[in-house]
Amino acid sequence: MDILSTRERTRISRAIARAEAKTSGEIVAVIAESSDDYLFIPLFWAALLALFAPLPMFALTAWPAVHIYALQLAVFAAGSLAVQWRPLRVALVPRAVKRARAHARAMEQVLAQNLHTTKARTGVLIFVSVAERFAEVIADEGIYSKVPPGIWDEVVARLSADIARGEVAGGFIEAVGQCGGVLAEHFPPGGGDANELPNHLIVLE
After folding, report:
1. Predicted confidence band at 78 (pLDDT cuts at 50, 70, 90)?
2. Are 86 and 99 in a shared domain?
3. What is the dihedral of CA 38, 43, 45, 51, to 10 degrees?
4. H-helix or E-strand containing 89?
5. Residue 99 maps to which CATH number?
6. Shared domain check, 62 and 111
7. Which pLDDT tens digit goes with each residue over 102-158?
8. In whole angstroms, what is the distance from residue 148 CA to residue 154 CA?
């Protein structure tokens, strides 16, 4: 995955370490190139195009049916080949579907990264799925009583804007700093704090 360079990943990991030094909370940063292959819907569009593209030929030409059917196959083959390019494939998927798939992937990471296993349940997941330009912040149950949900919405809004501009690394670092500031305010560091979750950026293939 080439979205982030080694240097950018290191910068994000260092930002996590700096933020966690000021709080007893834990920050987990996860990035995915895409949350789904999205093969079905683009192929549906290719099939639909193949179905309707030859219709004018029936009215405007004297082509025999076998030639028109051959055109349909050619259109479907060309469409299927075109949607192998990920940006086009993702662009053909409805926004609601992309958001649903990305949110589901984020929720999977809550368990996969053991966010729920911290002693005081004060973990925060920052999740980004680049192809969908999707960002989400998920806080564990120990945070709910002290931090209004709207705080995380502000973080997500700024991070999403950065992703849309292609500033993924900078957006991540800023989001980590914002989350760290919130955690430091409500969950200051204690004497026996242990690093319960990894500080490095987790990259999903």
Report:
1. confident
2. no
3. -170
4. helix 86-91
5. 3.10.310.50
6. no
7. 999 999 999 999 998 888 899 999 999 999 999 999 999 999 888 988 899 999 999
8. 11
134 and 191 housed in the same domain: yes
Domain-located, residue 121: yes
Higher-pLDDT residue of 159, 61: 159
Q: Which helix or strand (DSSP H or E) is residue 193 part of? A: none
φ, ψ of residue 128 in degrees (nearest 5): -130, 130
Tokens of 73: 């196959």
Q: Are 178 and 17 in contact (CB under 8 A)?
A: no
**CA distances from residue 38 to 16, 90, 97, 104, 196 in whole angstroms, order as listed:** 32, 7, 9, 14, 35
Same domain membership, residue 167 and residue 134: yes
Residues 184 and 122 in one domain: yes
48/116 same-domain check = no
